[in-house]
Design a protein that fits this description.
The protein has 22 helices and no strands. By secondary structure, it is mainly alpha-helical. It has one domain. The two termini are 33 Å apart.
Length: 432
Amino acid sequence: MNNAILVLVLVLVAGMLLRMPIGFSMLAAGVAYLLVKRQDLGLVAEQVCNGLYNSYVLLAVPLFVFAANIMNAGTVSERIFDFCRILVGRVRGGLAQVDILVSVIFSGMSGSAIADAAGPGLVTIRQMLKKPEYSRGFAGAVVVASATLGPIIPPSIPMVIYALVSGASVGALFLGGVVPGFLMAFLMMVVVHIIATKRNMPREASIPMREWPAILFRGALPISMPIVLLGGIYSGAFTPTEAAAVAALHALILASVVFRALSWRSFWAVVMESTRASSVITLILAGSFMLNYAFTSEGVPQAMAMWVDSMHLSQVKFLLFVNLMFLGLGCFLDVSVLLLVFVPMLLPAAKLLGVDLVHFGVLVVLNMMIGLIHPPFGMLLFVTKALTGIPIGEMMKEGWPFLVMLLLLLVAMTVFPQIVLWLPQTMGYVTH
């Protein structure tokens, strides 16, 4: 490691230890690198502007963020919750099963795990905590686990960012997440069923048939969004980036015109929150472009590829190594940082070994979702605690069966790539 890279790493780590916003830490590290290399500091502006303004796919990120915030502010979560109560509320542990099904539906709209936990998750936790059979820890653990479905089932904000750095098809990545996402949901429901049966958790009271048409109609309109989005993308009506704009417009019309649940004040709050969240992501993107410039200039990705090649790893062993790496880093780093800094360093090695980039991308995103729910710094644990007051220790105690299930699924997806690739290849996407 030469002096310039050493200084970059030291400045980056120092910024993180001082709790500087990660985007500023990355930019500061990039500036320090240029100073040591005695290069023009104008390269900072050049790399950032070229990276941000030459990527059409990046437009999807703030639009999906806006759509998710609109839906959380516009009673969509409550409507989907009532809809799902009719479908699975009568099984043992019905409210927990409802939460998982709600997350499946909501993930087809938002593409964000945090939005899922803060919207539908909050609704179901409040309902579960009204009944003594559901412990606080169990309610929080179910919501935290099911929120990981958001970026796996399309659309997905992390997959859009991965497509930016890898060049993989956004459409193929979205399709690649469908089967793993539904497998995750099914396995979560199995876990809930086992726990609910063991603890004799209640079934939900039956809803009178005369109320079904109104509830189904209220829920059908929000559920139309994933149908419109995915139907439009795969019919060729619009691109995945344009789909984000359609999602934002669809959510805005439903919340403001159809449901009349969005006042000017709440709309302004949504705009401000979406702007703030998008600015954070953009700042991290800006910093990542500088770091990637430094790493590429020093040949770090190529050195990584040569190191992997010298070890004569098979595809499966390499992917297992990547899994362990991201599961460890996920304890401490944000999803955006992992996607924008570490993935580009691993891509040359993945290509050298012939790893399919769609398969690699879905595995990486699932790794990062697991990182959001495991200690010590699982972001979803902290978000849920902040919203509900449920202690993190209680959620961790109840959440280990879900964590084990996700890890087993991750291994299965690593060993059997067709779990990810079958649907994209069936739909005609060339994924290798």
